[in-house]
Amino acid sequence: MGNTLTFLGLESSCDDTAAAIVRHTPGERPKILSSIVAAQTDLHAAFGGVVPELAARAHAEKLDLCVEEALQQAGLTLADIDAVAVTAGPGLIGGVLAGVMCAKGIAAGAGLPLVGVNHLAGHALTPRLTDDLAFPYLMLLVSGGHCQFLIVHGVEDFTRLGGTIDDAPGEAFDKTAKLLGLPQPGGPAVEAEAANGDPASHTLPRPLLDRPGCDMSFSGLKTALLRARDQAVATDGGLRRQVRADLCAAFQDAVGDVLAEKSRRALTLYLDRNPPEPAFAVAGGVAANRHIRALLETVSDQSGARFIAPPLHLCTDNAAMIAWAGLERFRAGHTDDMTLAARPRWPLDQAAPALVGGGRKGAKA
Ligand code: KG4
Ligand code: ZN
Question: pLDDT-derived band of residue 354, with 50, 70 and 90 as boundaries?
Answer without folding.
Answer: low
